[in-house]
């Protein structure tokens, strides 16, 4: 009887592992979970220890990878100095990318952050043309124009929301709060631009380094996180306030839990990406990546005080449409015979 139950449970587990809809749902859930938990942490009053937050997430990710390897669910090469030396520039770019991402998310609403993140796709696409050859199809160009348009609409809707808040502050005679609100609005877009540039540089340079080191997915994850740990903690000690008062102000049991969940979600995203491709197809995965931006953006409307006006909501759906068009364009290009 025990053997029969064991076989039944194994068959049940196999059905889940090879289930396409489950893999898609898991990928979407891990993406939303990571974005929402990051926003929860950086959205705290006077939060100013982004490097520590990222250190905790990388540490959790590294420990989880080691556990998965010990249990036989992940395979990656052991740490060695040669690979570490070759991969170190990528880790610096990773730190720049995740830090600017956390700062942009701190000052911008999740829907606006998600929409502007689409602009990274344009930089990467033209970077690949410049460094690796190829071309941009007319359908891809259409998707890029939609991405730019959605970003313009999002910025317009955000400025409209700021104007409404400023008017309310003026009506209440709170002039200092109004000035602070305007400066926050400007800083968020500066961090977002920096993040788009650093993200594109990270992806393009990593592509070259992967060919040099012959890294697989888990190798990349392991080295990215292990090498990022000393960089993050050193920069934290240099630029962040480690006084007991500031630590108490920045960290609570809720924020610590959110950081741990975010680190686990980052591993989940990577695992679910491969899982989704394996049990469905690369086409389905591309479509899911495009469709996933909609629930991520909408989560900002549900869980946080994101702008809720006609322009901001329209920008979400235009951004969603641009991602869908881009996914279809990439699939058509992959099916067309190479010239």
From TrEMBL:
It is found in: Golgi apparatus membrane; Cytoplasmic vesicle membrane; Endoplasmic reticulum membrane; Membrane. Belongs to the TPT transporter family. SLC35D subfamily. The lineage of its organism: Eukaryota, Fungi, Dikarya, Ascomycota, Saccharomycotina. Its main location: Golgi. It comes from the Eukaryota. This is GDP-mannose transporter. The keyword Nucleotide-binding does not apply. It comes from Tetrapisispora phaffii (strain ATCC 24235 / CBS 4417 / NBRC 1672 / NRRL Y-8282 / UCD 70-5) (Yeast). GO terms for molecular function: GDP-mannose transmembrane transporter activity. Keywords: Cytoplasmic vesicle, Endoplasmic reticulum, Golgi apparatus, Membrane, Sugar transport, Transmembrane, Transmembrane helix, Transport. The keyword RNA-binding does not apply.
């Amino acid at each position: 009887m025990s053997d029969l139950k064991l076989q039944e449970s194994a068959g049940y587990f196999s059905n889940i592992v090879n289930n396409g809809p489950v893999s898609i749902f898991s990928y979407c859930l891990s993406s939303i979970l990571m974005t929402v938990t990051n926003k929860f942490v950086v959205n705290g009053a006077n939060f100013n220890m982004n490097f520590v937050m990222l250190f905790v997430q990388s540490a959790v990710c590294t420990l989880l990878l080691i556990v998965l390897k010990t249990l036989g669910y992940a395979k990656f090469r052991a740490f060695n100095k040669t690979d570490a030396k070759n991969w170190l520039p990528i880790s610096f770019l990773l730190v720049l990318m995740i830090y600017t991402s956390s700062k942009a998310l701190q000052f911008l609403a999740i829907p606006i952050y998600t929409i502007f993140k689409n602009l990274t796709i344009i930089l990467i696409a033209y970077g690949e043309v410049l460094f690796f050859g190829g071309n941009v199809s007319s359908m891809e160009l259409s998707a890029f124009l939609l991405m730019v348009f959605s970003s313009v609409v999002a910025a317009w809707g955000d400025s409209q929301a700021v104007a409404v808040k400023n008017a309310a502050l003026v009506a209440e005679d709170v002039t200092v709060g109004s000035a602070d609100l305007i400066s926050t609005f400007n800083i968020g877009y500066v961090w977002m631009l920096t993040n788009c540039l650093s993200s594109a540089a990270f992806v393009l340079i990593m592509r070259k380094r992967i060919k040099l080191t012959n890294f697989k997915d888990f190798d990349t994850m392991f080295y990215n996180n292990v090498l990022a740990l000393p960089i993050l903690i050193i920069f934290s000690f240099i630029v962040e306030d480690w006084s007991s008062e500031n630590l108490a102000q920045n960290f609570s049991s809720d924020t610590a839990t959110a950081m741990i969940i975010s680190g686990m979600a980052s591993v989940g995203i990577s695992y679910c990406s491969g899982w989704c491709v394996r049990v469905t197809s690369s086409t389905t995965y591309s479509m899911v990546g495009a469709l996933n931006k909609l629930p991520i953006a909408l989560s900002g409307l549900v869980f946080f005080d994101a702008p809720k006006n006609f322009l901001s909501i329209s920008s979400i759906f235009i951004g969603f449409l641009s991602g869908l068009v881009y996914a279809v364009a990439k699939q058509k290009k992959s099916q067309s015979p190479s010239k």
